[in-house]
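User: Show me a protein chain along with its predicted structure.
Assistant: Here is one chain, sequence first, then structure tokens.
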Amino acid sequence: MEPSQRTRFGLTYMTKTELDFETNTDFSGLRPALEAILGSNGLLDTNLELPINAPQSVMLSGFHEINDRWAIMGNVGWQEWSDFGTLDVTLSAEDTKDLTVDLNYDDTWHVAAGVQYKVSDPLLLSLGIAYDSSMMDDEERSPSLPAVKPGALAQEASISGRRTLMSALPMSLSGAGIYRWM
């Protein structure tokens, strides 16, 4: 949506995606003891099912050119990690075994704001700050998924330039640095 030449808004929605993975297990080179344990539990030559839900998300963004040199921008977003944090694993053999793990993920929020300064036609400086909530509480954080701590702030600065050498071949050079407090 573009209410004026200098102002535009955007809304992005990504739907929840249900992914279903399935395969037949095939073990080789097992030590006799491990093979005996897996075999006695019916876990050799089984069918493995692993459904995963990728989270849905919504992001609202805005951009406004104050004048020919300065612009401000920002966005607010939400992701439904609470649905992603439940894993169901099914092993089908002589005896079907189900394992459901709830990782207790929380939905997350993202807020960001930034400015741009156009030094010259091809040279653009950007500076921004962002806040992301965490998908898990500190007591549920594990080394297997060391997610960002709650209340993480990030600052970003970037310099970019754009030159069009030929009308069909636009070229761009960019660089960025990010500092994140955890």
